[in-house]
Write a structure and sequence with these properties.
Layout lengths: L1 H21 L5 H4 L13 E5 L6 E7 L2 E4 L12 E2 L17 H6 L5 H6 L7 H12 L2 E2 L13 H6 L5 E2 L3 H10 L10 H5 L3 H8 L17 E3 L3 E3 L5 E8 L5 E6 L3 E5 L9 E2 L1
Antiparallel strand pairs: 1-2, 2-3, 4-5, 6-12, 7-8, 9-10, 10-11
Length: 274
Amino acid sequence: MIKYSKYVVLLISLFLLSCAEDEPEWSAADVCPETGMNAYGIPNRGTFVDERDGREYKYTTIGKQVWMAENLKYELPNPYSTCYGKEFCVPRGFGLNDTVQVCKTDTTRLAKIAERLHSTCETNECIADEFCEKYGRFYTLIKDAKDRGFLDRDIVDSVCPKGWHVPTKVEWEILAESVDGVVNRLLKEEAILAMDSIAIEYQKKDGGPIDACGFSALYTGYYDYSGGLSDVFRATYFTTSTMLNTGAAYSVIFGESISIQSIGTKISIRCIKD
């Protein structure tokens, strides 16, 4: 009986090994090639202009989806969108609890932010401009900009450029599946290098290469309703257009991995092509 069991275990092991060998290795050239044309008849990677404010955005094709390769920067009426250093200035990770006015007058307050940005700015106003341009704005799509409630469908339907929309939870799940759930394939290398040394080593253990699909996500953190910037240089948060029954929208989090949950804060938006 013991001898028979050994044969069964051996056969199962050989079967699993055979399956693993047959499974094709993930390839950026197959999933998200830099060159060639996509199903929309446009180059796999390129740029487009938001007609509303004249901003130019990069885009990338991953699988059958076409994604913006930058965070949205379109300014919605306050309080639906916020720009760090413009409307608020409280980076929690650096022990600051100041108003925007204080941050603008004391040019030493954001020194650590500037350092992580590899900035040459000498004033906080300059740092704020740089942060907003690189990381985009933080948005809430909940009615009346509250932390809980129903999505404001007028805002959801109009926040992205023409021909683009706020992704659903399912569309984010398809993206994650396209890269086999490996967050590094969607992260810009700069995002990892801005982390602390221990986190950098941990993140580099994940599968690469970094930003293989040109999605170029950066660790922006999020704006919480108590008035601060949290998780900057540690994680990034993207909104979806899918509601939970608890009065909040699903959020997608890029940290050490890709996860989907609910965050009642102002976070980034990446639009996807219609």
